[in-house]
């Protein structure tokens, strides 16, 4: 039976990928709620004209037919909404960052353990990139041996004139490492097979927007576990000449080879996306990966129905956010 979805919060554009991919998998959705005006609202109404906006989110949460709540509210508000949803007996897919403070994370852990509901963070730079699906297949097949390091970069265009007020409020967006770099933390844990790690270095700064003292345009961190090492760089420095929002890349170093992913563009060849480069003892190749698929969404549907953890282990979601929040704390200490 198809899952019925509810939407709480459309403040970030990631809601389009979250909802669109779930609908493409056969889910259905009737209603959405958001707190006040959102910069995405006009586009959301145009994209999903048959969905009804409700003024009271309890109409969604109290609907016994709703199985899964999608949340893309302002980052600082996501934990409270997820807790409310889980307390109402709903599973949750939340945009990253799933939470912004240690206190929120502790509350989420307690409610998830008590209710048994799913709290899944949609790390879209892994779950919505076919090249990452193909890299996962290759790593699992032993194409580069044992993974010893990941190097992930997440550059973005600023587009400051189009940003809502919360984008510049540190208490609302959570900081650049908690927010953007949670993607790269997720990828480090996943590809190294780490279930825990520690932050060994973290730094943030604001060098381009002094008029917005709460804004951070650069962040980096180092990670270390018993399985490998990770380096993360995120920023808001992408130049306007790039035809997309950022040149997101992932480098996966193994004992017998390496993989590079150029997720959203390939410099000088802007039409190329989802390109994977593989070098090992036998191969030196590039691969187009647009056909690799995005299994996260179908797996999450199965998890909701079967009470399994095939899309992402529950502990992984918590650990990824714990490390991102700790890196943010360390950088600002």
UniProtKB/TrEMBL annotation:
Bilayer-spanning residue ranges: none
Q: Which UniProt keywords apply?
A: Oxidoreductase
Where do the GFO/IDH/MocA-like oxidoreductase domain residues begin and end?
133-259
Record SUPFAM superfamilies: Glyceraldehyde-3-phosphate dehydrogenase-like, C-terminal domain (SSF55347), NAD(P)-binding Rossmann-fold domains (SSF51735)
- Record-annotated Gfo/Idh/MocA-like oxidoreductase N-terminal domain positions: 50-123
Extract the GO molecular function terms from the UniProt entry: nucleotide binding; oxidoreductase activity
Listed InterPro entries: Gfo/Idh/MocA-like_OxRdtase_N, Gfo/Idh/MocA_oxidrdct_glycsds, GFO_IDH_MocA-like_dom, NAD(P)-bd_dom_sf
Pfam families per record: GFO_IDH_MocA, GFO_IDH_MocA_C3
**Name under which the protein is recorded:** Oxidoreductase
């Amino acid at each position: 039976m198809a899952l019925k979805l509810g939407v709480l919060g459309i403040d970030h554009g990631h809601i389009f990928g979250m909802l669109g991919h779930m609908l493409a998998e056969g889910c259905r959705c009737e209603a959405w709620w958001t707190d006040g005006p959102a910069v995405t609202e006009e586009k959301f109404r145009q994209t999903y004209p048959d969905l009804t906006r409700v003024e009271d989110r309890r109409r969604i949460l109290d609907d016994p037919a709703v199985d899964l709540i999608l949340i893309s509210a302002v980052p600082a508000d996501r934990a409270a909404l997820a807790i409310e949803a889980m307390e109402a007996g709903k599973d949750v897919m939340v945009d990253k960052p799933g939470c912004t403070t240690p206190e929120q994370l502790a509350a989420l852990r307690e409610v998830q353990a008590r209710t048994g509901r799913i709290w899944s963070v949609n790390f879209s730079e892994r779950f919505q990139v076919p090249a990452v699906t193909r890299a996962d297949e290759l790593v699992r097949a032993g194409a580069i041996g044992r993974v010893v390091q990941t190097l992930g970069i997440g550059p973005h265009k600023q587009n400051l004139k189009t940003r809502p007020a919360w984008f510049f409020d540190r208490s609302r967006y959570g900081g650049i490492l908690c927010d953007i770099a949670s993607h790269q933390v997720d990828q480090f844990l996943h590809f190294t097979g780490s279930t825990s790690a520690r932050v060994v270095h973290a730094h943030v700064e604001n060098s381009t927007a002094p008029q917005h003292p709460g804004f951070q345009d650069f962040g980096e961190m180092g990670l270390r576990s018993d399985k490998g090492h990770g380096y993360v760089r995120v920023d808001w420095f992408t130049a306007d000449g790039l035809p997309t929002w950022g040149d997101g890349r992932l480098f996966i170093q193994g004992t017998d080879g390496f993989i590079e992913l150029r997720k959203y563009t390939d410099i000088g060849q802007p039409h190329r996306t989802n390109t994977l480069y593989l070098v090992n003892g036998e191969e030196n190749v590039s691969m187009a990966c647009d056909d690799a698929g995005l299994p996260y969404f179908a797996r999450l549907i199965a998890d909701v129905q079967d009470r399994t953890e095939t899309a992402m282990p529950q502990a992984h979601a918590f650990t990824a956010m714990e490390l991102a929040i700790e890196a943010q704390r360390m950088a600002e200490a």
